[in-house]
Specification:
The protein has 185 residues and is mostly helical. It folds into 2 domains: 1-89, no CATH class; 106-185, no CATH class. It is built from 8 helices and 2 strands; from the N terminus they run αααααββααα. The protein has helices at residues 2-14, 24-40, 48-65, 70-85, 91-104, 134-140, 146-160, 168-182; strands at residues 115-117, 123-125. The protein has a two-stranded antiparallel ribbon with strand order 1-2. A hairpin with a 5-residue loop joins strand 1 and strand 2. Helix 4 (70-85) runs antiparallel to helix 5. The radius of gyration is 16 Å and the shape is globular. The relative contact order is 0.11.
Length: 185
C-alpha cells in the first residue's frame, strides 16, 4: 500500500497534476489504504519485530496521508502514542502525525514538521507553537534541525516541479473549504 502511494504520487508529480489541490486519484488511494490498514490495527499499532521497521513505517505513512479521515487519524495517533510510550515505535512518527493533525485542526504544530507555501512563495514550516524551543523538542526526538528540514523541503519542491499557488487567497480558501467538508474544522 505504501509503495503504491509513493508510485502514484511520483506519477502525478511528474505530470504536474499533484500540485493543483488534493488530486482525486491520490485521495481515493489514501482512503482505500486507510480502510485496509484499519482492519490490520485491531490489535494495536504494528510492532517492528512482527512487521519489520519498513512495515511499521508503511503503516505510519498510510496514516499520515489519510488526511480526509480525521477520526481515523486521531484514533491512530492514540495507538501510535501508546506504542511510543512502550518503546515499540519511533517517537518521530508520533511527532509528525501530531503536527499533521494539529495543522489540519487549525492549531500551531509542535515540532515544525509540516510545510506549505508562505505568503512570499517560499516552502516554509506552518505556524509553530512556542517556536523558540522547537529545536529542543526536535532534538529530543532525533529530528534534524529545522533549518536542515527547511532546505530539504525546498529542494524537494524544486526537484518535483512543485510551484507556489498563483492565487494564494484562492488556494487558502479551497483548503479551508475542504477542511470543513471532511470534518477537521
Amino acid at each position: 500500500m505504501a509503495e503504491e502511494d509513493k508510485r502514484v504520487r511520483a506519477e502525478l508529480a511528474r505530470d504536474g497534476s499533484l500540485f493543483g489541490g488534493y488530486h482525486p486519484r491520490m485521495e481515493a488511494l489514501h482512503v482505500a489504504n486507510a480502510h485496509a490498514l484499519s482492519d490490520l490495527l485491531a490489535d494495536g499499532w504494528p510492532k517492528a519485530d512482527e512487521v519489520g521497521e519498513d512495515g511499521q513505517e508503511a503503516a505510519w505513512l498510510i496514516v499520515q496521508h489519510a488526511i480526509g479521515l480525521p477520526r481515523f487519524q486521531r484514533q491512530c495517533r492514540e495507538l501510535l502514542q501508546n506504542a511510543v510510550q512502550r518503546g515499540e515505535a519511533p517517537a518521530w512518527q508520533l511527532a509528525m502525525l501530531t503536527d499533521r493533525i494539529r495543522v489540519l485542526e487549525g492549531r500551531p504544530q509542535l515540532y515544525g514538521t509540516q510545510f506549505d507555501w508562505d505568503e512570499n512563495g517560499v516552502m516554509s514550516p506552518l505556524p509553530i507553537e512556542d517556536a523558540p524551543s522547537v529545536e529542543q523538542r526536535r532534538a529530543q526526538l532525533g529530528l534534524e534541525p529545522l533549518a536542515q528540514a527547511m532546505s530539504r523541503h525546498r529542494l524537494n519542491a524544486k526537484e518535483s516541479g512543485e510551484l507556489p499557488p498563483q492565487d494564494r487567497s484562492r488556494y487558502l480558501a479551497e483548503q479551508e473549504a475542504w477542511l470543513k467538508r471532511v470534518g477537521w474544522r
